[in-house]
Amino acid sequence: MSTYRLNNLLSPRSVALVGASARPASVGRAVLENIGKAEFKGRFGLVNPRHAEIGGIAAVKSLDRLDFVPELVVITAPAGEIPGIVDQAGRRGSAGALIVSAGLGQGPGSLHEATSAAARKYGMRLIGPNCLGIMVPGVSLNASFAAHMPRAGNLALISQSGAIAAGMVDWAAQRGVGFSGIVSIGDQIDVDIADLLDHFAMDHKTRAILLYIEAIKDARKFMSAARAAARVKPVVVVKSGRMAQGAKAAATHTGALAGADAVYDAAFRRAGVLRVSDLRELFDCAETLGRVESPTGKRLAILTNGGGIGVLAVDRLVELGGIPATISTEARKKLDAALPPTWSGANPVDIVGDADASRYAAALEALLADRDNDAVLVLNVQTAIASAAEIAKTVTELVAKYREQHRRWAKPVLAAWVGADQHIIQALSSAGVPNYPTEDDAVRGFMHLVRHREVVEELSQVPPAMPDTFIPDTSGAREIVTAAIADGRQWLEPVEIKHLLEAYDIAMVPTYAAADVEQAVTYAKDIFAQGGTVVLKILSRDIIHKSDVGGVVLNLTTPEAVRAATSDILARARKLRPEARIGGVIVQAMVVKAKARELILGLADDPTFGTVVVFGRGGTAVEIINDKALALPPLDLQLARDLIDRTRVSRLLKAYRDVPAVKQDAVAMVLVKLAQMAADIPEIREFDINPLLADETGVTAVDARVAVGPPQRKFAGSGPANFAVRAYPSQWERRLKLKEDWRIFVRPMRPEDEPTIHEFLRHVTAHDLRLRFFAPMKEFTHEFIARLTQLDYARAMAFIAFDEATGEMVGVVRLHSDSIYESGEYAILLRSDLKGRGLGWALMQLIIDYARSEGLKTISGDVLQENSVMLDMCRQLGFEVKPDPAEPEICDVRLKL
Question: Three-state SS across 120-172?
């Protein structure tokens, strides 16, 4: 598993530092002093072959001479010594190493490769190299060269930049914000962002996870971990390089629209990660998420002593998609009784500039009791009339009392004391009230909470592997693409594109390929006979953008006009592009729909995240208008609707004036079909439909371009290798017949199975639960079960079994692969009253078949020695069974595939 041994590195019971220097102002000396200042509670050893002591701490010459085995080895030694140090640590039995040093290089024969090989030999985990280090306040560990040690708290920070991590520590010290852990990951020789997301998602001390990202190496692994983590707690990211261009020049409009940052934005959205634009907003997110839970809705009540700042707050709230709360009749009566008659009488609740602490308290009590709002923002502009500090003290006391009375769930209370002294900020922070310098920051903080709640709801959706509303001609479509590649072509011909679209039930205007003038006239006559007009386009594999050479002529109504236009197009193309291969012209029916909207839909290939679906406003000026949105496939109708709704052109799809609305879901269905096409035919590199005409009758593709090539396997495992997000694998649904004609339905687990799991666990004895979880399990929390059910179908898979007669859940088997996708760890649990009927054997065979299909090399598991039934079944299935040398009561079972 990707969290393998991470707990040993981030909560070690013993630490050794190798490479500490006696030289002041060196990295090694700074790390040594920080470990000492933090007062690490476990055993600590110092290793230095040249010094007997450093800074008053005795040192030994090598790890072998320590009188204990360090769980974590911190390395600040020169790069050339690191492979040997890691090998020595592995021989001693260390769980992992933190490599602060830089200079390991990359590629074959490098120190990086030698260090990785040494760690793999012993199953060690590595953080770094070239990093600031780690800080874990909960275990008093500061193995870094940061200037300060953060206080303990409930935020985790994972950063690709040591400077950013250090800056967060300094900010947190000023704001009273604490951390469950800070990890600077450096060059990610082993432990990466996804591994740490997995770890902190399961860490009960962590309420929210903050990320600073420069680039992602393994997109599918990141998406898997981020989606799983975001379902159970907020994950917030700031990414640098927002203005960077794509990795390559794009030949299609969709390729040009899918710039690198836009794809990252789509990936974060699909993963459920809250993206912020800069460090200030990241700090604000930390301020909010570290102190309060997400509200149940987005209705915000605003309490203020300044009308202007209250109106500004409402303006920002509406702009960001929040809702100014109404005031209930009951709350209004309370406010009328407690406030002067000059109060605003509406939200924002302006209690007038001379408001003192008692007036704030009366108004806040009324708003906290009002069910017509989901959260309250308290604003204060300092005046010479009332003490801002006294008002803050009263507000914090009232909030504390309110939270005590509503322990199960209290609505969030946020604050902004404009121009407040530091002692007021500290008072609010100490009371756990998120506070901000301005009303704008406070409203953004509230909307971060709202967005997280919406994200959790969105992530519960499970796109199907194949929408059941249409059945494409997959084999026919694949033949078209395969033939083009075999012919050495990178682009499909227009007639091929028409057939490709027809295979997926996407309408396109009548399209013909004419080799010469007379053939063009013949095809045109067929169109004229049906009452249509004609458009001509140059047919050339080398001229992608036809209008660049005057290769498009519209509104032709007679054979003579077609004859003349064809001659002109061919002559012009040969003159302007003499090197181009000219195949003739395309003859199409001219579609004239005065009230149709011009859209662009397509597929683009991103070097990091694979296939991306693009939607936006179409036409020749598509890049200039730049009204587009991106999404990672697979898509279902709801995800396609969300993609459309993120564009400005989506408003034009609705009815306005005398223009009818576009046919419901006609555009969304084309997006779903394109996403399915990308899954079925990974040889499609880029796909451009521009324009797609949409009106009340439906949609019609007018022009399209398709780039093809041999498929590139971007991601490990089964499923579309060009998708960073894997679809629900419906192909693994099974109906099984067991002993005594017992009929079972087995399918991959879904997020909505959480209530089913809770009911299932009521039928499992405490003894069987201990055998499965290795400890008594008295309670299963929502977070625990959600983590089990929220699968990515990539690294994690679980099959859930139902009795077909009763519909009740009877068993579950799961598999979680390691971070390099070579081995998987299995677990199985059956209803205690239904054991002995062959279900366990059937589920184990199924998970083995699945592991083989994924290309895993081994399956392993930990089984208690006393669990003789499971051990016997493992032996019968071919597993090798060995006692665990570290824990004699556990057997390690392993099956080579």
Answer: HHHCCEEECCCCCEEEEHHHCEEEECCCCCCCEEEEEEEECCHHHHHHHHHHH
